[in-house]
Design brief:
The complex is a heterodimer of chains A (365) and B (199). With 365 residues, chain A is α/β, with parallel strands linked by helices. Chain A is 36% helix and 16% strand. The chains are: A alpha/beta (365), B alpha/beta (199).
């Protein structure tokens, strides 16, 4: 084993206001972030990794509780994102609940948590805030990489800041959700909104809407798996003998219940509402009148990866991005990786991804 | 030793041009083109493992089925298209050829010649589907579902107003160029390489 690397999440206090897409503004915004590796003198060896719906700034190395980051398989010395060479940055998104300003943060105007006073945010706003972190480091050239909702942020970076993005890696993602995925998010939000403890979002000093949030998480987990993965993981296995009541009988029920239960301890229900809404709203195809127009000024190289059994962010959706880039004669690579893991594959199938990303980045010099 | 076919294809492509390699496999030819001719290249390949190998060579590759056409590419957006040893394994050669000539100014096409004398004698004497180095498969597992001959190719191009700009015939380790009589070339050549275009 090599040397164990530890990391601590830091906070950047952003000066000035953050103007949001909705027309509203946020002040006293803070960003929680971690960095791995060293920024070089020319400040052109940075990679920003972008987390998915419920992720956080802790992407790699061990935190003080010895917990590895969510992409630790991919970030580190000699890994896909090689910290011997690159300065890797990860931050919690706007609207989140892991250190960056979100609905659970204190509203400076009321000295109470924002709750639903928090303005509705978009992927554009999330990226706009990340730009402030990148500017804080004085970074001139940037590589962006993310899976799922993180891929949407990477896409937004390439569209919005073409002058600094050199390489864009988009994994198991899409330029916009289809009706099916919006529907799942809608059901998840409804579960939270209809929880008896929701109290219009003002639950911070009493019981949280745990039931609603855990149901939302269960729905999420169904969409992250696929038929194959469920069959392999659970089949029709019972936990014990049939109960002949409505308790938990099947392994798959037990799995979902567990995922729901552990989630409420680490995530804020209001954040879940805001972030899923941001994902639903994102649509550069509509905004620019076609992806071709959105990518017009980009000089980035692109690597797009999809997974064969991912039905939440499908290969067809990845191909929509690829086709727009081909049409513009941009430098693009695309592969659909065979996997039995559904959408979850982007966090699990790291061997193939490592090979591809490593060779992709090797060329960027 | 360098594959003769690769050498010939490389010699036909201009320096610093843009190249679309249709059915690029593991990307060996594209890598060679990049090294020797400094081309800006994109490979198209359907097989996942081949795409992975090509990506690991640092090439730009898009996984895609050629038989579905090249809709997303603009007209004449590449200087060259290369269809190297691939035509005979496409399901829809007509579509692939017309799409290739739409998106590229010129194209290099190569294929094993099914009228090569050894192939003819194999079928004639053994009465079985020909098998040799260039066609190593059995009838039931061959990817070559549209085998053709040099004469077939000329006829195909003539009917569609495709201009044959160069023709090169390969026989073992030798190359003969286009002034050979077509019927003789068709008999003697193991493989043919053409430069074609269509306005």
């Amino acid at each position: 084993m090599g040397i164990t690397n530890f990391v601590e999440t830091k906070i950047l206090k952003v000066e000035g206001n953050l103007e949001l897409k909705s027309g509203k503004t946020l002040s006293n915004v803070e960003i929680a972030y971690e960095t791995y590796g060293k920024l070089n003198e020319d400040k052109d060896n940075a990679i920003l990794v972008l987390h998915a719906l419920t992720g956080d700034a802790h992407a790699a190395f061990l935190d003080k509780n010895n917990k590895p980051g969510w992409w630790d398989d991919m970030i580190g010395p000699n890994k896909a994102f090689d910290t011997n060479k690159y300065f890797v940055i990860s931050s919690n998104i706007l609207g989140g609940c892991k250190g960056t300003t979100g609905p659970s943060s204190i509203n400076p105007k009321t000295n109470k948590p924002y709750a639903l006073e928090f303005p509705v945010i978009t992927i554009e706003d999330i990226v706009k805030l990340q730009k402030k972190l990148i500017d804080y480091f004085g970074i001139k050239k940037l590589i962006v990489a993310g899976g799922s909702m993180g891929g949407m942020q990477a896409l937004e970076w390439a569209i919005r800041y073409p002058e600094i993005i050199t390489n864009t890696i988009i994994i198991a993602s899409s330029a916009r959700l289809n009706a099916q995925s919006i529907a799942f998010n809608a059901v998840a939000r409804n579960a939270i909104l209809s929880d008896k403890n929701f109290n219009n979002g003002n639950y911070y000093d009493s019981v949280h809407p745990e039931q609603g949030l855990s149901i939302a998480r269960m729905i999420g987990h169904i969409t992250y798996l696929c038929e194959d993965a469920m069959l392999k993981k659970f089949g029709r296995e019972f936990k014990g003998d049939p109960s002949f009541d409505f308790g938990i009988d099947f392994q798959v029920e037990s799995y979902l219940e567990h995922q729901g239960r552990v989630f409420v301890d680490r995530f804020d229900a209001n954040s879940y509402l805001y972030i899923t809404k941001a994902i639903d709203y994102y649509d550069p195809v509509e905004e620019f009148g076609g992806l071709q127009n959105a990518f017009k000024n980009s000089n980035s190289r692109f690597l797009i990866i999809s997974f064969s059994t991912d039905w939440l962010f499908t290969t067809e959706q990845s191909k929509q991005i690829v086709n727009a880039l081909i049409n513009l004669n941009k430098d693009v690579s695309f592969v659909e990786l065979e996997s039995k893991c559904g959408h979850d594959a982007f966090l699990l199938e790291f061997e193939a991804q490592t090979k591809i990303i490593k060779s992709f980045l090797k060329e960027e010099a | 030793m360098l594959n003769l076919n690769y050498k010939i294809v490389c010699s036909l492509i201009d320096e610093n041009s843009s190249v679309l390699d249709l059915g690029c496999g593991e990307g060996n030819l594209l890598r060679l083109l990049r090294k020797t001719k400094n081309v800006k290249g994109l490979g198209i390949e359907i097989d996942e493992n081949s795409v992975l190998s090509a990506l690991q060579k640092g090439l730009s590759v898009v996984q895609k089925d050629l038989d579905k056409g090249l809709d997303e590419f603009q007209d004449k957006s590449y200087d060259w298209a290369v269809l190297n040893q691939t035509l005979q394994s496409t399901k829809d050669p007509e579509l692939v050829m017309s799409e290739m000539l739409r998106v590229a100014k010129k194209a290099v096409v190569s294929f094993p010649n099914f009228a090569y004398w050894r192939v003819r004698f194999y079928l004639f004497l053994k009465g079985k589907m020909p098998k040799y180095k260039k066609l190593p498969y059995e009838w039931y597992n061959t990817p070559n579902v549209h085998l053709l001959t040099i004469s077939d190719f000329f006829e195909f191009c003539k009917k569609r107003d495709i201009k044959i700009e160069k023709s090169l015939y390969l026989k073992r380790h030798k190359v003969a160029s286009g002034f050979l009589m077509r019927n003789i070339a068709n008999f003697l050549s193991e493989e043919a390489v053409f430069v074609i275009s269509k306005n």
